[in-house]
Design a protein that fits this description.
By secondary structure, the chain is an alpha+beta fold. It is 57% helix and 23% strand. Strands 1, 2, 3 and 4 form a 4-stranded antiparallel beta sheet that branches. Helix 3 packs across helix 5.
């Protein structure tokens, strides 16, 4: 009879341990999902180096911060060169009078930032770029 009690006790311990392992596994999975969700909500900024272009008798100089989720910060850093090239191309195509009209044209700046974001996402075939923020911007007549 004691052998059977020992087996019953062993079975109860085994089931108990299995339930604890399952509970810990589910808890870890839940915490991981919460962490990933929080990362996707957090914002990260990557500063591009200052970019200057001269085109059609105008010069533009810009410093830009690329906004992504914190989860995509590594992707942005890996694609920094490609993002710089997109910015240069968009600035070359931009109309300086519309961007920095007289008097100052906030709508032109907003449109340029929107164009930068859209062009970055299209060219890099992604949706990770949430925004392109002009932190410094200068337009002048004449070449650099």
């Amino acid at each position: 009879m004691s052998t059977r009690n020992a087996r019953d006790r062993w079975s109860v311990y085994t089931v108990g341990i299995a339930l604890v392992v399952l509970a810990v596994g589910f808890a870890l999975a839940w915490f991981y999902m919460q962490y990933r969700e929080r990362l996707s909500r957090e914002v990260s900024f990557l500063m591009l180096p200052p970019i200057a272009i001269s085109h059609s008798g105008h010069s533009m100089s810009a410093t830009i911060a690329v906004q992504t989720s914190a989860a995509d910060a590594g992707w942005a850093a890996e694609n920094k060169r490609a993002l710089e090239q997109v910015v240069k191309r968009v600035l070359m195509e931009a109309d300086p009078k519309k961007v920095a009209g007289v008097p100052a044209a906030p709508a032109g700046m907003d449109a340029l930032q929107h164009t930068l974001r859209e062009a970055s996402n299209v060219e890099l075939q992604t949706t990770r770029v949430q925004g392109m923020l002009l932190t410094e911007f200068l337009v002048s007549e004449g070449d650099l």
